[in-house]
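Shape matters. Shown next:

___
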Amino acid sequence: MNSLTLGFFYVCGMSWALAECALRAAYGNPLPLLLFVLAFVVVFAIMGCLPVSDKTINTTGSVGAVLLAVTLAVFTLESWTGHAPLLASLLKTVFMAIFAAGAILPFVSKNETAGHSHH
């Protein structure tokens, strides 16, 4: 998770999820926003505050990305079953598929140098 590309990838996915949760809260359902904030605090408490190894941080980030991909898939499915315009649903589907592929990439590729910084 120390790669700038993957960091940007995670920030984009989290921003999308936060926007979806905020929209649901604006329409009267604050539960997704509360769950998002709770998950955000727990994940970053583990990754930033607790003395854990780099491997644990990378594993937590990878699992978090998969959970985020599942959440984005649910939001995308809701756009197809709701009243969202066709173009919006198509774009959400494409971006969700890209995010899901990127989220499972760390589990598929077994790079020996992953997680090591170069000095």
Remarks:
- The radius of gyration is 16 Å.
- The chain has a mean pLDDT of 83.
- The first helix runs from residue 4 to 26.
